[in-house]
C-alpha cells in the first residue's frame, strides 16, 4: 500500500503536491470538528439527564460560571446549541472537503492526460513507428480516468477517512479506553482479515480488466477506422465477434471487483450487531446502570454514526486501489518513459529557413529502422535544385518514402548528412527547415470541420487567415469548386474524414493545406496513387501550375505522374540505381524501361 501511495504521488507535479498539502490541512481541520462533535455530546447529555452535574463537575461548573447564565436550563440549551454548531460546522467542512478532493482528483485527469499527450507529441517520429496508436489513445482517454477515479481519489479519501477515524478513536480512548480499544480492535481486525483474503483476487481482476480494455479499444478503432473495408468485405460479424470477448471480459472483471467491494458490508453487519450486544453488556457492568452509562453510550453511538461508514469506505478505497494497481503501473511506466524527453519539439520555431536558392543535397544517407536487420537506405545521395520538379520512383520497399522522411526531417540519418543551400540540417535547425516544407501524403486526414479549417489544419479558428486559405485553394485548383459547387463555400462541413467529398477533392484539399503557409518546397508522397487516371490528371494540373513557383518532390508508383519532372531518381533496395530525365532513363536504364513498358499510357 505504501508503494501505491508513492506511485500516485509521483504522477503529481510539484505544484500539485503543494496543493495537496493544503488539502490535507483542510482535512485535519474537518477531523478536529468531527472529534469535537463527539466530545461535546457527553457534557450535553450528562447535564440533560442530570442537571446537578453542572455543580459537581469542575469543568462544567467553571463553564457555567463563565457563561454568566442565571439558570441551569439556559446553560443546558446553550450547550445544545454549541453541540449543534460544532456538528453543523463539521458537516459544512465535510462537504467542502469532498468538493476539494473531487475537484483536485478530476483536474488530475486533465493535467495527467495533457502531460501524456504533450509527452507523445514531444517524441520523434521514429518513436511512433513502434507504437500502437490505439494503446496511446486508450491510455489518455480511458486509463488516466480509471487510475484517477479508482486509485488517486480513493487514496485521497482513504487518508481523509483515516484522519477522521483516528481523531474519533482518540476521543473515545479519553472517554473509555477499554471500550474504545476493544471496539476498534474488533472492527479493524475484521476488515484486515477480509482484505487479506481478497487482495490477490482483486489484483488479478484488475490486471485482466486492464488488458481486456486495451484490446477492446484496439478492436473498436480498427472497426470504425476501417468501416468501409468492413462493409465491403461483409466483415461486420467478424469484427463484432472480435470485440465482444474483450468487452465481456472488461465488464466481467469490473463486476467481480465491485462484488468483492460490497460483500464485506454484509459480513460487517453481523460483526456490528454482535458488537452492540457486547457493548451494552459491558456498559451495564461498568457503570452499574444504563442511565449512568447514557452519556458514554451517546458518545459511542454518535461516534459509530461516523466510524462505521468511514471504516467501510476505507476498506472500499483500499480494495479499489488494489484492483486498479495494474492500470496504475501501466500509467506510471508510460509517464516515466516520457520523462527524459525535452518538449522543444512542441515549440513553434520563430522563423523558417531562408528561401531555397540553390539546392537540397543528401550525401551518403544511410538509415536503419529500429529492430530492423537491414538498412533501409544505403548511401543515398540526391540533389534537388531550387524550383526543380524531382521524381522518386521504385518498387515498394525500395526506400522512396524513407528518403522523403529524411528530407522532411522526420528521420535522422544513421550516417550521412543533408544540406539546404550548404547549411547542414541538425536537430537544432530542423524545425525551421520543416516550416519551409509543405507535405501531401497519400491518405489525407480530414477533420469533421469546415473546408477552411481543414486547409488551415491545426490552427485555432481565430488564427485562420481567410486570405491565405483562398490563396492556397486557388493554387490547388480548388477555389472555383468551393465557391460554385458547395452550398456554404469555405464554411461547408466536410463530414468525418471528408466523406462528403470525392477522392480528388480530398487530395486537392491536402495540396491546399500544404500550401497554406506558402512553403518553398512541396513534397507529394504518392498523393495520386489511389486516384483514377482522370482525377489524377486534374490533381496533377494543379501541381503543374506550381512548377515555376515551388521546388516539388514527387514520389510515385505511376510513371505518368513523374513524366514531366526535371530529374527522376530510380531507387531499388535502399539505393539510387538510376538518375535522369524520363526519356533518358527509358533509354539507358533497363529496370526503368521495364517499368515504363509495363505501365499503360494515361
From TrEMBL:
Q: Kindly give the SUPFAM superfamilies that the UniProt entry links to this protein.
A: ABC transporter transmembrane region (SSF90123), P-loop containing nucleoside triphosphate hydrolases (SSF52540)
Give yes or no: UniProt keyword Cell wall biogenesis/degradation: no
Instruction: Give the subcellular location.
Output: Cell membrane
- Domain ABC transmembrane type-1, first and last residues per copy: 21-323
Enumerate the GO terms in the molecular function aspect.
Answer: ABC-type transporter activity; ATP binding; ATP hydrolysis activity; ATPase-coupled lipid transmembrane transporter activity
Primary localisation category: membrane
User: Which InterPro entries does the entry link to?
Assistant: AAA+_ATPase (IPR003593), ABC1_TM_dom (IPR011527), ABC1_TM_sf (IPR036640), ABC_transporter-like_ATP-bd (IPR003439), ABC_transporter-like_CS (IPR017871), P-loop_NTPase (IPR027417), Type_1_exporter (IPR039421)
Q: Which residues cross the membrane?
A: 21-45, 74-96, 152-175, 181-198, 266-283, 289-308
Question: Mind naming one GO cellular-component term on file for this protein?
Answer: plasma membrane
ABC transporter domain: which residues? 360-598
Instruction: Report keywords, A-Z.
Output: ATP-binding, Cell membrane, Membrane, Nucleotide-binding, Transmembrane, Transmembrane helix, Transport
Pfam families linked: ABC_membrane, ABC_tran
**Membrane topology listed for this record:** Multi-pass membrane protein
Q: What is this protein called?
A: ABC transporter ATP-binding protein
